[in-house]
Model the fold of this input.
Amino acid sequence: MDKLWAPWREQYVTKHIKENKACVFCRILKEKKDKTNFVVMRTKLSSVILNLYPYNNGHLLIVPNRHVNDISKLKREEREDLFDALDVAKKLLDDVLKPNGYNIGINLGRAAGAGFPGHLHVHVVPRWKGDVNFMPVTASTKVISQSLKSVHKLLTDAYKKRH
Done:
């Protein structure tokens, strides 16, 4: 297969951007409704949030608390905190979901696939051997076997035990 198309994502992103002029991450961080918004943890300068439209179970977004759209605009302390939060988040996923690997990445700008180009965020997607099967190819459906609520509880409980 040369290309894997995911056109169903465009509708979500386009709709969300049109409906919400304000930054979704800034809103979530300001609200302090961590359970409702699936915030797993907060550090001084970053937050870890479950992706509402995950590619796999446990798909996390590591977000700087300050509204910034590019790595080059982060202060040294913010970069260090962001990557420390990434490290803690990955360890939580290791403990709770035990994936075989990860896709970790940053999409900078709409042309690069950033659904929310105004606020930098790092995707952490846990991967397992065989996690891509016939469903996305034959039925245009990705099977996510755990609810966001159950994964959020597992991760927040694991975080509380660690800290």
